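Here is an idea for our session: we take a single protein and study its fold together. To get us started, please write out a protein record for me. Once you have written the record down, we can walk along the chain together.
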Amino acid sequence: MSKGKERPPEPLDFFIWTVEDVGLWLEEINLGNYRQIFKENGVNGEYLESMSMFTTEQILRFIRKCHMKWGDFIILCKELRRIKVACLKGEQKVRRPWWAPRCLSVVFVKAAKCNRQSRVVSLKLEP
C-alpha cells in the first residue's frame, strides 16, 4: 500500500494496533518524525497500552530509547488519553477487527460495547 493511500487505524482498536498502525497514527498526530524509531523499537498498540503502567524510570528509558523531546512525549500521552476518553464516552465506532470472521460481527460488536468501559478505565493515563 502506498503512503498516500494508507488509512489511519481505528482509534478504538489501538490496543491491537500493529507497528505500522502506530506509525500511521504518529503521522496523524504530527509526530511522524518518530515513526521509524518506534518501528525499530517494536512499539505497537499493546506497548502503547502498557505505557499507562510505566514507572518514572521506564518513562525516561522510553524517551531516551526513542530520542523523544519531553513536549512530544506529553503530546503522545495526551493523544492516547484523548482516544481512551472518546472510547469511554462511546464516541468511537465499534467495528469487527480484520481477524474476526464476518459471521461474528454482531457478536463481536456487542461484546466490545459491553467491555468498552472496563477496558478503557484500566488504560487511563494520569495527567
User: Anything to note?
Assistant: The helical segments are 19-28, 35-40, 45-50, 56-65, 70-88, 105-122. The two ends are 37 Å apart (CA to CA).
